[in-house]
From TrEMBL:
Highest taxon of the lineage: Eukaryota
Biased composition (Polar residues): 12-34
Protein known as: Uncharacterized protein
Originating organism: Microthyrium microscopicum
Keyword Transmembrane: yes
Length: 210
């Protein structure tokens, strides 16, 4: 009888152990899995996204500034060119008898064209970049660098001819054209600086923004 009692205790102990194991398995199945979040990784991703968004907003603001400056320069080109055309016939007659007058007429036409074309292209490029019509990366960087070089070159070219010019008394149309041309030169120089800044931002974004 004693042996029978001990065997019965062993069976009860075994049954109790099995019951405990089954209960633990059910609890583990019903328990919600724990998801581990690495705060360092989360903060790193958040900082990267914030930096990328900041660069995007900064670049957009620079392109908007380029659009405004280029449009203003183009507006003054629409003033200076018609005013100078009023004196073109007399300039052409003078060019027939004077080499210096001929050179002056040629440079006047070329500098006015450079100002108008430079402002128009700057406006076109800035609008395309602001509207994301140019893919980001090397193409966008190339467009920004080209905009900086083009507008700076146009400003220097215009200044080389018009800096020595002065107002002519009582000749309103010519004086207005001269003032507008100097405004075009200043606007192109300023937008060239903005293009240089956007080039730096684009390069930084390309290298470190990912």
């Amino acid at each position: 009888m004693r042996e029978f009692g001990e065997a019965r205790k062993v069976r009860l102990s075994s049954s109790s152990s099995k019951h405990c194991l089954q209960t633990q398995n059910r609890d583990s199945e019903n328990r919600t899995p724990f998801i581990s979040i690495n705060p360092t990784s989360y903060n790193s991703n958040f900082n990267k996204n914030s930096s990328k968004n900041y660069l995007t907003m900064l670049q957009f603001a620079l392109h908007v500034a380029q659009i405004g400056l280029s449009a203003y320069a183009l507006y003054h080109a629409s003033i200076s060119i018609p005013n100078l055309q009023k004196w073109e016939k007399s300039s052409e007659r003078a060019a027939k008898v004077s080499k210096s007058a001929e050179r002056d007429l040629k440079m006047t036409r070329q500098t006015q064209a450079a100002g108008a074309v430079g402002a128009a292209l700057s406006l076109l490029f800035a609008s395309a970049l602001a509207l994301h019509l140019v893919s980001s990366g090397f193409k966008s960087l190339s467009t920004n660098v080209f905009g900086a070089l083009m507008t700076a070159a146009a400003s220097v070219y215009i200044g080389g001819h018009w800096d020595a010019k002065g107002n002519i008394p009582l000749v309103t149309s010519y004086n207005d054209a001269l003032r507008s041309t100097q405004t075009i030169r200043g606007q192109l120089a300023l937008v060239g600086v903005v293009w240089a800044l956007s080039s730096v931002v684009e390069l930084y974004s390309l290298l470190f923004g990912k």
